[in-house]
Amino acid sequence: MQPRQRQRSRWPNENFALALMTGAIRAALGGAAIGMAVATPLAMAAEPAAGATAHQIPAGPLSDVLAQYAAASGVQLVYEQATLAGMRSAGLQGRYTESEGFAQLLRGSGYEVAKQGQATYVLRKSPAAAPVPGAAGTTLATVTVSAAAMPGGTTEGSGSYAARSSSASTKLNLSPRETPQTLTVITREQMDDAGVTSVDDALRAVSGVTALAGGSIGSNFYSRGFSMQAQVDGMTTPAGIDSGNRSPLYDSAFIDRVEVLQGASGLLAGAGTPGGTVNMVLKRPTRDFQAHAEAQVGSWNERRVVGDVSGSLVDSGSVRGRVVALADTGDSFTDYVYRDHQAVYGIVEADLTPSTTVSASVLTQKDKSRGHFGVPFAANGSDAGLPRSSFWGDVDNRTIRDYTIYTLGLTQQLANDWSLKASYAWQKTDNDIRNFASLSGSLDPVTGNGLSIGSRQVNYVSALHSNVVDIYASGPFELLGRTHELALGINGTNTRDENAGTGYSGNTPINVYTFDPAALGPVPAGRPGTSAHTKTSNFGAYGVARWSVTDALKLITGVRVSDYERRNLVTGAVAPRETGVVTPYAGLVYDIDTQYSAYASYSDIFSPQTSRSQDGNVLDPIVGKNYELGVKGELLNKRLNVSAAVFHLAQTNMAAVDSSVPVNPSNACGGTCYTATGKVVSRGLDLGANGQITRGLNIAAGYTYTDVQFVEGPQKGQRFRTEQPRHSLRVAANYQFPGSQWSLGGDVAATSQTYKSGGTGAAAWTIGQGALVLVGLHAKYRITPQTQVNLAVSNLTDRSYRHVYGREYALYGDPRKYTLNLRHDF
């Protein structure tokens, strides 16, 4: 491929921090009171008793469209499911009063609604209507209720940026207000409005998450200063998210929502890191038929097509299926770089009995690409003035990444409102990388010399195969005259990691002003092959209870006991191995009134180490402890979720070099000895608001302040991971113009400066990125009730900026980018 032509604070001590947290939570409570005062007139303005409001509900099965309208209107609709079987609706666009909307949706169906009570409607046959094929008759024998909450936390079709529930923190299905941790959910509506096509882009919309792009090896995601783990449908995925050549760039076409739980989450994860957990919740089959197709074009030759079909596979609806398929190709603003990926997701659910449902699914994605690591800085870390489109690698490089998840699931309804859920998944990631090349050295921008192309490999292959299991039972129980909730479960992973590579490790000096990537030629034969083969298991059992202390006060307590082992399958060595590690969890939620709750929580997580002390023993695991105080609210008839929290996260037992023991390969440590004296503390503030301010205006806003420092060990007093910003702001919004086919929205991402340092003395260097504000816009026009077009522009001001990854490689962010998406609903 030939390059295209282009135009060229410091925290004094922990006691002070805890005092500050107490003061901050009092301020947050005061802010909550102010918010209540502000929310009241907003609610009155947003919900006039007899006024018309704007709606933008797409076409689909009539029962689904009515459910979406009832949810948007904050009312209940009582009806028999079979009554509307086979009926479809053109959707609803424009301004209608509550009753007018129902009348418009039911026009020609032979049915109408009758209001019963303040917020309940009953579906009935119109008195003068002729019999409607497929209708069940005038009398409703059994009913189902469509309420404001979408079932199971599903966000698809809700038309909202607000999540209704999540089980990400405890396996108990809780609303965001009931969850005593910072929880952010990127809904299907928010992803569609912004034209998001990958989970990476979705996570960049969360203020507390830092996405550090690493080029060919993917991105690393951090929260509160620490890395995060990944889940798919609540099941751990050891491959992670687009990181370390372990997984592909997850496509958003399969996903209903992305749940981001920040802070330590070891209750369900076992071993891991304290930054938090990202849970990607996949789409589920629908009982009624629905389908859509998308075609998208964009900057740098982007071409994308998506098809999504769902519905019942038998007349009774007891067997349902869904298939999502896509193809996505494109180049890059960087010369020679391209991507080409195809993916398919298929799932079948079957009701074996009224209380037993089984499911089977497969998600497979294959990516072929030529990546890069960005553009080098000068030796001292200053900008060398090289074009952001320049490519510093081998044009014969190509990477093929093949990722697949096979999943089996069982849901069994038990007596007394209990249920049992069991899932098993086999996950695999296979990578085949040819002609990989990387830069090394120190660049002299005057002469252009100082860098070398090194570590060129003819071939590198790796395989990461995991067995994942998740089994738990949950339900209510009675104690001391009150009803409580309990969940008991086991989960874990067993992962094999194999890799092998051959190539040539010599360096080829280059001059950055005369370098031609196409002139490198074949990789010389030489270096003998290398390989590694390990097996890692991480299993545990847990229990969590939600105690109803009073009507207003809920106490959540939980504990997990975990076993962890990493074994070298070549040598047979086992290190580390941890057994019986106890992970506690506690949360207290107090309902201040019908809208606001205050909470406090403690959670932790452990991370096994391989470093050894002078006696030869492996150090105890690193432990990340998260303390959090906050206020959460559900405003405007639960259409808007708001939150404010302060947190204190301490990571202890970190390995630090034991300078009292000389380095000696023959000692008990095998060279360098360590002590578990390192400690890092992260303190900060999280603010968030997600949902509908009015029925035509969706918002997702968040601000996070994070200060992370070493408080013990040889680096005491220094900042930890300076490449992550202290201040982060994210705002996204979309407005549906009343009575119009147009909607308009945008987003803002702002971060404070970041930097990274290395070297010592005369060889010291610092790279950095100043404060950054990125702006995006999108506009949507509904051509017909079934067809719409969406234009999205990111980095509207064409800001030039870098990801602070390393001196030799630091990716430029995307310049101004356009995408045009055409969607048709069938």
From TrEMBL:
Keywords, comma-separated and alphabetical: Cell outer membrane, Ion transport, Iron, Iron transport, Membrane, Receptor, Signal, TonB box, Transmembrane, Transmembrane beta strand, Transport
Compositional bias of kind Low complexity: 157-169
GO molecular function, one term: siderophore uptake transmembrane transporter activity
Keyword RNA-binding included in the entry's annotation: no
Spans annotated as Disordered: 154-178
PROSITE patterns membership: TONB_DEPENDENT_REC_3
SMART domains tied to this protein: STN (SM00965)
CDD domains assigned: ligand_gated_channel (cd01347)
Record-annotated Secretin/TonB short N-terminal domain positions: 75-126
Subcellular location: Cell outer membrane
One Pfam family hit: Plug
Assigned GO CC terms: cell outer membrane
Membrane topology, record value: Multi-pass membrane protein
Broad class of where this protein is predominantly found: membrane
InterPro entries: Beta-barrel_TonB, Beta-barrel_TonB_sf, Plug_dom, Plug_dom_sf, Secretin/TonB_short_N, TonB-dep_rcpt-like, TonB_sidphr_rcpt
Top-rank taxon, per record: Bacteria
Record-level GO BP terms: siderophore transport
Keyword Transmembrane helix listed: no
Entries under NCBIfam families matching the protein: TonB-siderophor (TIGR01783)
Family: Belongs to the TonB-dependent receptor family.
Protein name as catalogued: TonB-dependent siderophore receptor
Organism of this sequence: Comamonas antarctica
